Amino acid sequence: MKVLITGGAGFVGARLARTLLGAREGRLAGRRIEQLVLADQAAAPADLLADPRVQGRVGKLLEHAAALRDEPFDVVFHLASAVSGECEADFELGMTSNLDSTRALLDALRHRQQRTGAAPARLVFSSSIAVFGPDPAYPFPDVVGDDTLPTPQTSYGVQKHVCEHLIADYTRKGYVDGRAARLVTVTVRPGRPNGAASSFFSGIIREPLAGEEAILPVDPGVSHAVASPQSMVDGLVKVCEASREAFVGRSAMTMPGLNVTVQQMLDALAKVAGPRVRALVKPQRDERIAGIVANWPKGVTAKRAEALGIVAESSFEDIIRQYIADHRDHPTALKGLRELA
Amino acid sequence: MKVLITGGAGFVGARLARTLLGAREGRLAGRRIEQLVLADQAAAPADLLADPRVQGRVGKLLEHAAALRDEPFDVVFHLASAVSGECEADFELGMTSNLDSTRALLDALRHRQQRTGAAPARLVFSSSIAVFGPDPAYPFPDVVGDDTLPTPQTSYGVQKHVCEHLIADYTRKGYVDGRAARLVTVTVRPGRPNGAASSFFSGIIREPLAGEEAILPVDPGVSHAVASPQSMVDGLVKVCEASREAFVGRSAMTMPGLNVTVQQMLDALAKVAGPRVRALVKPQRDERIAGIVANWPKGVTAKRAEALGIVAESSFEDIIRQYIADHRDHPTALKGLRELA
Predict the structure, then answer these.
(1) Is B72 left (phi over 0), alpha (psi -120 to 50) or beta?
(2) A156 CA: distance to closest CA in chain B (Å)
């Protein structure tokens, strides 16, 4: 089978590719992956490009999408996205990257399905719990789930939710076999802070482990749903492999997360890496970030996803330990842990 | 002030224009209407074009929209739309007419607001209770309202709901001052049957009053929310004149309707026009239409709209009498009533 990952050079996309080719032995939904295309604005990691099954494509999805009409993809993981902070700062960027690109991808898959009469491509879309946002007129539940009314209060959340509805309709019409996974915040992200308002949820763990200070821009009482990169990737694979019937009349599904406060995250860091590492986190409130995060749910329930066997971690310590295990061979990433723990 | 009505030559649009210029004496939201532009694919009615304040524009909205960037509209009623049956039959038509056109209109208004720093144009969007649809996995409430989770099961419903969310975000960003009114089925529509699956809700009254047979394609037990053309128009004006605060964090509002069964509609027809007129309605089930209508809500509640003083009729007889009063001077429209009552 032929698989496309948009955003395939990114952190989640590359991990998904490694999981498919490695731990899952090149098989997906009972079939062998013959070709895995990683499309992204940056080049995919060298280890992936070295695999003969992998083809990298660099460029904007919106510009590539029309050409996809002639390619028989069996499965598409659509992960490419501008992040929440970028979309708030640059409205047109968000609309283009998150809405127009998804529409172009859907239309490419639709045109091929209509022209050839082939089975619709299976499409896994990375949505977000940012589709939920507090409408000032209505009580917002502390914990959101599949039956919560989405009233997103960010451009990112609106764009994701609009795509969910479009995917549901393209699916109902038989043009694609679409599934939208509403991801919780992935943590601990490797690398540097990005434009996402949620960036600090990784930064307050990653930077101290590397021996660097990290700014905490919100109150420690802030509660949030998080999941590790690997549980996120495993969840996306399970969403892909689920039967069409498991999604019934709607395509979107809330993914599980560990509902945790920032204080609990910091306590877990102290427990795993010691108080000196923990002390590298410095509170310094950022009203812009605090304001965006205040509009996010405090936690999730994920009944439908759990029925598919999709789970998140049950302890934040496990999430920190996954990051440490992932970075055993990256000495600078764990400099703080080594020198201060 | 300068007002635009898209779909301004249509039945609701023209009635809205006559109401604004006539009953409301050319005033809207406390200001005088200097110019009223009626944009549509067909020419506006001659009586409206004869008014010096009225300018008609014929053509597709998508092609006109960019030019709107340079026009200082204070209020836009965006009523132009492909109807539900058309959107189900022709997917691309629905996406272009209902989604792309609305997006182009929003972007035109946004560009002007951003370029000039002017107050955002007030935008009243005709959405539909077709945003609600029964998700097979979840119990669908008999009566839908502002807090019901929209899981539309038609392309039309998806397109309307997507536009609601885009309008909410353009509003949150300050580009427009948008409000989406989820209209119930307008009845009695004048003229001929159209492509809407709801067309028969008018046909079973209009055709018998004209002395013609009408086909009833669904069971008489089917329940639906309806409102008269005038209550619909009055509702749109009230939505326009409401304060921004009345809409708070979401732009969409369910409009009131009279929840009525087809049987009750037919009984009202017999009462107003007599049993011989009523007998012109012939049951002949149409599975396609029955299937679409089965996915619609059986009725509505409209708490938020009612708080703004928006009401529908409380008796279907009143709705029939409005149609009769509207057509006093159209002898063929009331031929059945005259000859058979």
Answers:
(1) beta
(2) 10
Query: Which residues on A lie below 8 Å from B173 (Cβ)?
Result: 91, 155
Q: What is the mean pLDDT of residues A105-128?
A: 97
**Domain residue spans in chain A?**
60-340
Reading the block at residue B177, the tokens are 């001052």
Give the burial class of A35: count Cβ atoms within 10 A of its Cβ; 0-12 exposed, 13-18 middle, 19 or more buried: middle
pLDDT higher than 70, residue A315: yes
CB pairs under 8 A between A and B: 69
| Averaged pLDDT of chain A | 94
Confidence of residue B249 (pLDDT cuts 50, 70, 90): low
Give contacts of A91 with chain B, Cβ < 8 Å: 173
Cβ contact (<8 Å) for B138 and A161? no
Pairwise CB contact (< 8 Å): B248 & A147: no
Q: Contact at 8 Å (CB) between A56 and A9?
A: yes
Helix (H) or strand (E) holding B207: helix B199-209
Contacts of A130 (CB under 8 A, 6+ apart): A84, A152, A154, A156, A157, A160, A296
CB contact under 8 A, A248 and B166: no
Q: Which residue in B153, B166, B173 is closest to A172 by CB distance?
A: B153
B126 contacts B159 by C-beta, under 8 angstroms: no
For residues B228 and B319, give the distance between their C-alpha atoms in angstroms, rounded to a whole number: 6
Binary contact (A248, B135; C-beta < 8 A): yes
Output the pLDDT for position A294: 84
- In one letter, which amino acid is B81? S
B162, B173, B304 member nearest A166 (Cβ):
B162
pTM score above 0.80? yes
Nearest to B161 among A165, A173, A248 (CB): A165
- B77 bridge partner residues: B5, B124
Which ipTM score applies to this complex?
A: 0.94
Confidence at A138, pLDDT banded by 50, 70, 90: low
Nearest by CB to A168, from B158, B248, B250: name it.
B158
Is the CB of residue B115 less than 8 Å from the CB of residue B319? no
Task: Report the range of poorest mean pLDDT among A48-57, B57-66, B224-233.
Answer: B57-66
Q: Which residues contact B133 (CB under 8 A, 6 or more apart)?
A: A249, B140, B150, B151, B152, B153, B154, B157, B295, B296
- Contact by Cβ (8 Å): B3, B20: yes
Q: Which residue in the list B156, B170, B175, B323 is annotated as catalytic?
A: B156
Number of H helices, E strands in chain A: 15, 16
Is domain A60-340 given the CATH code 2.102.10.10 in the classification?
no
* Chain B contact set for A168 (CB, 8 A): 151-152, 158
Rounded CA gap, A112 and A110, in Å? 5
**B323 catalytic residue (yes or no):** no
Minimum CA–CA partner of A134 in chain B: B249
**What distance in Å separates the CA atoms of residue B156 and residue B128, rounded to the nearest whole number?**
9
CB contact under 8 Å between A158 and B166, yes or no, is yes
pLDDT digits (tens, 9 = 90+) for B228-239: 999 999 999 999
| Digit-coded pLDDT (tens) for B91-113 | 999 999 999 999 999 999 999 99
Q: What is the DSSP secondary-structure string of A258-280?
A: EEEEHHHHHHHHHHHH-HHHHTT
